[in-house]
Each structure stands twice: as structure tokens, then as C-alpha cells.
Amino acid sequence: MALPGFASAQPVGPVGDNTSCTAEKADVEKRMEVARSKGQMLLRRQLADQLAALQSSCQPLAVDPSRAASVERLEKEVRALRAELEAAEAQLRKLKGEANR
């Protein structure tokens, strides 16, 4: 089953053009937000995996991310997952409310 906006024919190997990486990351983040707002949690999770792959492939191989950068990245992911969970819970409450009518 193919999901719209998920399949991409772009290589996941190291990318030399930092501008291209930044644009790709921004595109994936935008699609993640759209998927989250539409309640497409599976697609959002798949896009998060794609973003993580992009982030690792776009980093120069000689530079390891610092501890602070890792903490910041994880905090951002936690915030995104919390927002996703809140949206899913709101959707669940709505569905339960409709079922009780």
C-alpha cells in the first residue's frame, strides 16, 4: 500500500549540498505537520523516520553531533510526539462522543 507523499526516489546517502538538505528537511517537516493536522499518524511517523534519515545523511561525516544538539533534537521529537498524542486523544474523544449519541 503506497502512502501519498511518503515514497520518494531521493537517495538517502550522504548529501553534499547543505542548501538541498535544508530544503528537503523543511519539506518533510511541512508534510509531517500536514499529516498530523489531518490525523494521519502513520504517515506522520513514517515522515519522521524519513526526516531522521535525512538529518543523519546531511551531516558532514567528520562532525559528530554534540551532546547539546542531541538533547535538543530529542526534545523536539518529544514535543512533536506529545502534540501527535494530544491530537490522537482529541480525535478519540470526538469519536467516543459521537458513538454515545
Brief summary of the model shown:
This protein has 101 residues and is mainly α.
Question: What would the keywords be for this entry?
Answer:
101 residues; mainly alpha; 3 helices; 0% strand; elongated; disordered N terminus
Task: Summarize the helices and strands and which ones pair or pack.
Elements: H1 18-37, H2 41-58, H3 67-99
Helix pairs in contact: 1-2
Account of the protein in words:
With about 100 residues, this protein is an all-alpha fold. The chain has one domain (about 20-100). Helices cover about 70% and strands about 0% of the residues. The protein contains 3 helices and no strands. The chain has helices spanning about 20-35, 40-60, 65-100. α1 runs antiparallel to α2 (about 40-60). The chain is elongated, with a radius of gyration of 16 Å. The model is unreliable at about 1-15 (pLDDT under 50).
